[in-house]
Design a protein that fits this description.
The chain is an alpha/beta fold. The chain contains ten helices and eleven strands. Helix 2 (about 135-140) packs across helix 10 and helix 3 (about 165-180) crosses helix 5 (about 210-215).
Amino acid sequence: MNDWQKQHPMGTVLGDALPGAPVLAPRGNTVTGVRTITLTDPNQADVLAGKQNGRYPRYDRPLTVEVWYPALPGADDTRAVYTDYMGRADLNNLTPFSIEGRAFRDAEPDPAAGPCPVVVISHGYPGSRILLVNLAENLSSKGYVVLSIGHTDNTYPDFPAQGAIESAVIHRSLDQRFVISQLKKLNSEGFLRGLLLPDAVGLIGFSMGGYGALRTVGARISEKVLADVFAPVAEEVREAPDWHGDKTVKAAVLFAPATFWFDFARSEDIDVPTLWFCGTSDKTVGYDAVRQCCEGAANSDRFFISYERCGHNVANNPAPVEALSAPWEIIKRWSDPVWDTRRLNDLNCHFVTAFLDSLLKGDAEKAKYFNVPTPCGKDADSKAGTGWPGFPEAAPAGVILEHMPPQA
């Protein structure tokens, strides 16, 4: 054990599991490297430039992406230090802080580890590609290549005073689709060469990232919303009649997704398995709206996890030390009044690992972790689910797990 490991024992770094965590929450054994790349999506709507002659001008849209991948161990490797921010640019209160990770910055890839299934992560509004680093590092240590998108115009350091929501509505799903479309190219050249399974993709979206993910797998914005709410951007967001979702995506994880713009009756194109998480006290996207959207996706094999009395932030990193003395308006980005964020992270890592391993790695044994003895409903007593596989205390307090099979 070197000096760094002595100073950072397991359980002290984001992505580590706490004692008492479910069995799939701990990190895996894959040595992980991390690099930052920029991808450029040509001919996209330049929302911040404003409309000209009734249309947005086009530009080459840059996307900063954080990439975790299997790496060779090396004495010269440098532990990753991620930079994220309190506040945001448009409020003039942007303050950087550092997060230490267990991945190695710019480490040499391990060609023998590939090809690996791919996970693409899409953050909230606003957010950052680092906001779910707890989950990204955890999954990468289990043999996944993980790409976390920084959505231009929607990150803390580039959040504009005007145009942010229009950019999000237009670009969230398009950004995801573009990154997924680049996987074959990334697998054929550069440091990721031979490391990817470009046709075995898991998509994870939080909040507005979940809105994008739902569109990416086939959800449709309602015509009423297009006419009444999105009229200025309708031309950019209306799907082509022959769009039925990106079939490269084999599994989607939706953390408190923004669903209020969708036509729940037109969800037949969502036919990939989905795993949903939402707090029952989520006032940002609305627990009932998320649940209604899930129920409407009747062609998907769905698992719905409710965190009782939890608010919106079901997936984010724990709050940084620098935020602990800040006002609630700052710290609430990473916190919940009822739930401990580290415990939420452990639960998420467990269930997401089981879900993706079973679907992307073909590990059918992992499906047992969704086979709780007593099915739980929305209004059921969570104590009814006793003896949950993988949990040390029989059943996790405050967690309701439901399975909604696809319609026949």
